[in-house]
Request: fold
Amino acid sequence: MINLSFDTSLVACSAAVVDTGADSRVLAASYCEPGKGHAEILLGMIDEVMSKAGVGFEDIEHQVVTIGPGSFTGVRVALSAARGFRLAHGIAICGLSTMQAIAANKSKLKTEYHPCPVAVIIDARRNQAYGQMFDGDSNPLCAPAVIDVDDLDSWLEPWETGPLILMGSGAGLVGDNGIPAPQGWMVTTQHTSPNAACFAQAFKNLVPGETPPDPLYLRMPDAKPQVIGQPTV
Reply:
């Protein structure tokens, strides 16, 4: 079975085609960190990986796409593309939180850390972070949450006595706020964006319908629409 996976939720843009058979092979993958302009990049990237993999839309069983939280524009770019492919080609969609997709990046770390649970923290700015906890197989242990930076220590407290991988763009917030990393923790500020090649393999058994492709914003957008006649600041 062939799956198409892609992400534009944060600074990166990535896409992958994966054969989810017994050997779970990545047939083709692409990753870049443009920061912005995801809408201009994604469709070309998807075309590239499908061409390299030698597959067409008729070969794709389902799509795996990140649903947020993250950039409001970025989240909409990937979901709009997935919904377009579903409408045009009848390809079902599996949604994946941005934090769970990042948790799959632990495959890039040293193998001794792979069985460890993962806490993913994304810097959401405005003195807040998005966070979610996962077990050793990157299955969620809690729902995605918005956390005040001052409360990160209490959010992480249940893991102080055991091994833990702390990942994401907000991992550095722990040290910045004087929260010590207990012995046995691995705190990394690398691999902070979802990588389709990683999460496509880690979650190859997702079932469409069980993980709906609904956007996960967690909070209102920072940008506010300007009211006509209201002066700009």
User: Anything to note?
Assistant: The chain has a mean pLDDT of 89. Residues 72-89 form the longest helix (18 residues). The helical segments are 38-53, 72-89, 98-103, 152-156, 172-176, 196-202. The beta strands are 2-7, 13-19, 25-32, 60-68, 92-97, 118-125, 128-134, 145-148, 164-167, 185-187.
